Amino acid sequence: MAETTSLTQKDRAEQPTPESTRGVFFTPRVDIYETSDELTLYADVPGVCPDDVDLHYENGELILRGRVKPRHREEQFIFQEYEEGDFYRAFSIHESIDAARIEAECKNGVLIVHLPKVERARPKQITVRGQ
Question: Hey, what domains does the chain have and what are their CATH numbers?
């Protein structure tokens, strides 16, 4: 089973990330859930279209990149918190993943990535018989 990690806000700020050459760079919040059959990643990516997501899995590493495109440039904002720009996350996956069966979907600002485990990596229940 994968080790469960919970980061505090302070820990998130100290995580090393590559530098972006295009303005604001975001680190989307992510949850990863594990079952005996797969890992499922949930990433908060509000404002992102599926076409703006670049998702790669290679050599045990899952790389998530994308861009939040500008929404309104003509308006004069009186208050603004929503930001636009690039985002990036990379994960080392320690499970044996069946790369040919990985699926991803983007719904309501959440990217959901299904990473199915290969058959040999799945736990096997062994029946113990008695006499």
Answer: 15-120 (2.60.40.790)
